[in-house]
Prior knowledge:
Blueprint: H1 13-23, H2 31-46, H3 56-64, H4 66-73, H5 75-91, H6 97-122, H7 128-138, H8 146-157, H9 173-199, H10 209-228, H11 232-255, H12 282-287, H13 294-299, H14 321-328, H15 331-338
Amino acid sequence: MKTSDLKYLLAYITPFTGWISLAYDGWWSWTAVIFMFGVVPVVDALLPTDDHNHTPSAEEGRSSSRVFDLLLYLNLPILYALFIGFFVLASQGDMATADLVGKMLSIGFIGGAIGINVAHEIGHRPEWYNQWVSRLLLLPELYMHFNIEHNRGHHKWVSTPHDPASSRYGESVYRFWLRTVSGSFISACRIERDDAKRHGYAVWSLKNKMVLFIIIQLGYLLFVGLVFGWAIVPLAICMAVAGFTLLEVVNYIEHYGLTRQKLASGRYEPVQPHHSWNSDHYFGRILLYELTRHSDHHYKSSRKYQVLRHLDESPQMPLGYPASMLMSLLPPLWFSVMHRHPALQTAS
């Protein structure tokens, strides 16, 4: 690992802002929210974009380095420490409402940033321990089905009408949220149901991962209620919603309006770099472990984050991911900006 690769330590700024949110009251309670959606967009706008790619020989060495993996794994204890820290503070019952909401959203959004996002990266690795690290990262966000649907649903059907996680041209982020949250859960259930039929075991059994995951998630909420008080359970659910909402807004901007063509055979064309939006805005790239180089991830999902490439064929977001997420919350502005992009000129 080169000294220049220490840049990925910057990703720990995000959970550090969560610690500040828990440690102090007043506006400090909102530190993580302000950092993610105030500071990061400004820094992204000020810094030059970076489309540098590593050489094939450098990629080989970086792919085999365990240090990059360790940086991901450390997010697991950090995530649970932040959630438990919030539960302890909230259970004391003497917090101002504004402080409670600020801390809850701060830690909830961090659940999406270092929970679901890191789970997404690790979940593409086939080893059983990586699969369970991914699932444990998804647990506080009550989104363990993402481990099923993303790998076996989204990557198969991305940028087609069959994918609940691909946003459509002219679809607002709010309409998309309703469709993808329900549709992704249903898709995961169908995938596991079909697996049960294919392998000859009962649908309602622990071999069905959806059944297992639901039991684990209910057990998590039961644990929160028994240890920290039943009044904390609704807060835990709200934090989970904040976390997976962050994910789904990212999903919205990653594939907005981009479609794969149906071939004469009835199949869809293979996934190409131009089927995902990308951003080379440097700060957001590092904080999100290169998630913003999304085209290369879909092109070859086994590529690790430290070797994802800039691809010239990929449409580039006009802003970094955090700023684009904010823009998507104002649909008229989002449509006005994005529909002018050459990549969407044929979609209108």
